[in-house]
Write a structure and sequence with these properties.
5 helices, mainly alpha, elongated
């Protein structure tokens, strides 16, 4: 029974993270004003916002395929490190907490889904 609970928890975390990253990436790809303004404020070009959006959406989908989770967590982890760095370098250290928390969740998922 404990194994079933662990499996359910892993799927729950995978689903929640995937939903968050699809929403975030989707907003970037759809051209929502908030991401456009943020990327502009940080001095990033429009193509970079689109690249990050694609990585977030594709990475989210990879989280839902157990054999490919490592690729998704790695790609999304790199994006979260970049997001945290961007916030710290722009005197928004408190804003770096969200990407860092997501990075920890991604690391936990990668560990939980590692090959046995």
């Amino acid at each position: 029974m404990a194994e079933k609970g662990k499996t359910s928890a892993i799927w729950l975390v995978s689903g929640v993270l995937a939903a968050l990253f699809v929403a975030s990436g989707g907003m970037k790809l759809a051209g929502a004003q908030a991401p456009i303004a943020a990327f502009t404020r940080y001095g990033y070009p429009a193509w970079f916002r689109l690249l990050i959006g694609v990585i977030e959406v594709v990475g989210a989908l990879l989280l839902l395929v157990p054999r490919l989770t490592a690729y998704g967590t790695t790609a999304l982890g790199i994006v979260m490190i970049g997001a945290a760095y961007t916030h710290v370098m722009n005197a928004e250290a408190s804003h770096a907490l969200v990407p860092l928390a997501l990075l920890v969740a991604l690391a936990g998922l990668a560990y939980a889904r590692r090959p046995q």
